[in-house]
Design brief:
heterodimer, A: 368 residues, mainly alpha, Cytochrome-c3 Hydrogenase, chain B, three-stranded antiparallel β-sheet, 15 helices, B: 147 residues, alpha/beta, six-stranded mixed β-sheet, 22% helix
């Protein structure tokens, strides 16, 4: 005789170690099965868009560091590209290459965090996460050489980067590029064909491509569902049109595919960095622009990049003043959360945490 | 293999043929549409095979004091082009425009955010409540008159 139980509503978070920040899910369960899901956020809302209206164009760079705080370089890049489109200026070639190198290093670091915490969500207590941290730590050391900061870097400026790389940066980068594959190979060996990972992730919470597109999902989550769409290829910025790389895709869009696509993207990022290091030539790194920037009244720009989480864009509107009239941030993490209900309903409690981890959200960016 | 931005005039001609009295004006990159026709226009943009705007990049709202401007950034993966559609909503109090939730599910959180921070209500959205601020918060902070 089946046992009938009352549906039960519980809160996961906002203070919960596996919600990647202060994120709350109100979930209704029938036994262990999920009936209803409602994502609730805003606990980290700092009003970045309003703050941006009070600051000048260069000061806002520091605000963007604090959006997706594990990929601040890419946030800087998205914002700076927005301002450059607004002003109609172009970055010197060396500046473009430095930006591409740092953005790709940051993508590796961000994906390592995504993979590490995903493994943590699967129940591996520490080991893979610490392996990922080990490699990420070396990337942060490289950033420290460039700009003195490890996480909130503010390395880029409208018109280029803040300063050229110091001389000892290049040997350090070369050493990292030599070693990282061995280090990352250890992680891959540990997790990629791991039987527990396969059993827990294959076929769990698949995302059909049609739903993904209709829900405005972007980045690795979209590519795991089978569409090779990458803004680095489709709307090239900085030095991406001068390098060769592939866009890895998977077909099922399940938890394993999302996780697998991130691992493949790390390899492509390394490929881009190698080509950039070969191609980069001496020169200016930053365009000479006035200290306080002003754009034409009524000018507007949609600065878009492929961030580690998906399409990150800054929609800037100018009224001719020293700060943007409006600075709207299209954050990929927030919009990717649109599919949570679709992914979770019908699955079990234990899969919920894993699926959430496979989306790789960052609350700094969701709430802004 | 890069995306092209669709010319405003071309899009305006297509839209004015398909949806009666929807286009207000256009320039080189943008088409302005009449707010009550947003949903009809959105459906046509998505379903017409030669436009095929399956992907809604973002919905932004800008406060120009005498009016609010809603900005829809759209992309077609199949046709590899992008478009910008805007709509002006005049007034300050009890503003309401049709939701595009039933056309693009991706509008869900973005429309809620516009309501939360700018105070424009979307008719037909199934869950129109505040998103980053709490229920009971007074005012809409991204408006220019909110201090």
């Amino acid at each position: 005789m089946p046992i009938r139980t009352e549906p039960m509503t519980i809160n996961l978070g906002p203070q919960h170690p596996s919600t990647h920040g202060v994120f709350r899910l109100r979930v209704t369960f029938d036994g262990e099965e999920i009936l209803e899901v409602e994502p609730i956020f805003g606990y980290l809302h700092r009003g970045t868009e309003k703050l941006a209206e009070e600051r000048n164009y260069v000061q806002i760079v520091t605000l963007t560091d604090r959006l997706d705080y594990v990929s601040s370089m890419i946030n800087n890049q998205a914002y700076c590209i927005g301002v450059e489109k607004l002003l109609g200026v172009e970055v010197p070639l060396r500046g473009q290459y430095l930006r591409t190198i740092t953005a790709e290093l940051q993508r590796i670091a961000s994906h390592l965090m995504g993979i590490g915490f995903f493994m943590q969500d699967l129940g591996t207590l520490g080991t893979p996460l610490m392996y990922c941290f080990r490699t990420r730590e070396r990337i942060l050391d490289l950033f420290e050489m460039l700009c003195g900061a490890r996480v909130t870097v503010s390395y880029m400026r409208p018109g280029g980067v803040f300063a050229d790389a110091p001389e000892d940066f290049w040997p350090a980068l070369a050493r990292f590029m030599e070693d990282w594959e061995t280090e990352f190979g250890e992680i891959e060996q540990l997790i990629l064909e791991n039987e527990i990972v396969l059993m827990r992730c294959r076929g769990v919470s698949p995302l059909p491509l049609e739903t993904a597109i209709n829900c405005s999902v972007s980045g690795p989550v979209l590519r795991a569902s089978g569409l090779a769409w990458d803004w680095r290829k489709m709307d090239p910025y900085d030095a991406y049109d001068k390098v060769e790389f592939d866009v890895p895709t998977a077909t099922n869009g399940d938890n394993y595919d999302r996780f697998w696509v991130r691992i493949q993207e790390i390899h492509q990022s390394a490929r881009i960095i190698r080509q950039c290091v070969e191609q980069i030539e001496p020169g200016e790194v930053r365009l000479k622009l006035p200290l306080v920037l002003r754009a034409e009244p009524g000018a507007e720009a949609y600065g878009r990049v492929e961030a580690s989480k998906g399409e990150l864009a800054f929609y800037l509107v100018s009224d001719g003043g020293i700060s943007p009239y409006r600075c709207k941030i299209r954050s990929p993490s927030q919009i990717n959360l649109t599919v949570t209900e679709h992914l979770l309903v019908g699955w079990k409690l234990a899969d919920m945490i894993v699926t959430l981890g496979s989306l790789d959200i960052n609350m700094g960016e969701v709430d802004r | 293999m890069t995306v092209k931005a669709m010319a405003g005039q071309e899009l305006a001609e297509r839209l004015s043929q398909a949806v009666q009295e929807s286009v207000e004006r256009w320039d080189t990159t943008t088409v302005w549409i009449d707010p009550p026709r947003i949903n009809d226009v959105a459906r046509f943009l998505r379903e017409d095979p030669s436009l095929d705007f399956q992907f809604l990049n973002s919905i932004s709202a800008v406060d120009y004091i005498e009016y609010f401007e809603l900005v829809y950034h759209l992309t077609s993966f199949e046709r590899q082009h992008t478009a910008v559609v805007k709509s002006r909503v005049y007034g300050r109090e009890s503003l309401s425009v049709p939701s595009v939730y039933d056309v693009w599910r991706g509008a869900d959180f973005q429309e809620r955010e516009v309501w939360d921070l700018m105070g424009i209500h979307f008719e037909g959205h199934p869950n129109m409540k505040r998103i980053v601020l709490w229920e009971g918060f007074d005012g809409h902070p991204l408006r220019k008159d909110y201090l």
